[in-house]
Amino acid sequence: MAPEDGSDCHTLLLRAEPALRHVKNHGKNNIALYHLFFHHQDLECQLAMSFRSALQNGKFYLCYQLKFNLTEHSIASDEALIRWNSPVPDNVSPVVFTPAAEKNGIIFELTKWILEEACRQMKQWNQSGHPIKRVAVNISAPLFLSDSLPEMISKILYDYQLPAHQLELEITETAIIEYFDKELHVIHLLKKVEISILLNDFGTGVSSLIYLKKLSIDTLKIDKSFIDGVHTSFEYKALVKMIIQLAKLFKLSVVAEGVEKKE
């Protein structure tokens, strides 16, 4: 439809094409208008076809976000963040390619690469006397539901001769709540090999307090949405204080995500 979907012939034809494919793939003999959803589907398909070659050709790399210790006024740990030099589009965001990797079953290979690269870097830091003593890696829900995760991590730690306490796994609160019994079993296996567990995005799940006591986790990460308003909003400040007090009660560490202002 013009001008909503384009003001020239070329753009309109480009956007008519995925609408046409959508009709053909859903029984034909119908009418469909272009929707942004078609674009996301096309992008996911392009990304899925590029994943394995990107892994093989070294197109993925890690950035490290430092965690500042307010008690000791030092930096002793960080979080590994994956990035991709992708041609479609340039430097596609992890917010886009991570769900695509989960849908296409490539998240296992991708996470294994992240774990290996983070442990390789941690080993290098150890050898150079670097102050970073622990690295955190985000684990997607599909992988965290797998019994093979503890074995895979144990092998990677062994290959890089890295003590387990130098690796921390981050799992989102919503994923744990959705598959609680299965997640609890995997967490138990990971704790057996002394892996630290961080509960990510804490405060966003409605049932978190019910399950918190049962989880053998080490750290809570306060969601960025609470931190963004903590210096201007009494309500957010009260919520953050409550989470910190709760963590102390359960003898847990606390990480605040997205701290950008001194206040």
TrEMBL record:
Source organism per UniProt: Domibacillus iocasae
Q: PROSITE patterns from the entry?
A: EAL
Q: What is this protein called?
A: EAL domain-containing protein
What domain of life? Bacteria
**InterPro entries membership:** Cyclic-di-GMP_PDE-like (IPR050706), EAL_dom (IPR001633), EAL_sf (IPR035919)
Domain (EAL): give its ranges: 44-263
Q: Which GO terms describe its molecular function?
A: cyclic-guanylate-specific phosphodiesterase activity
What parts of the sequence cross the membrane?
A: none
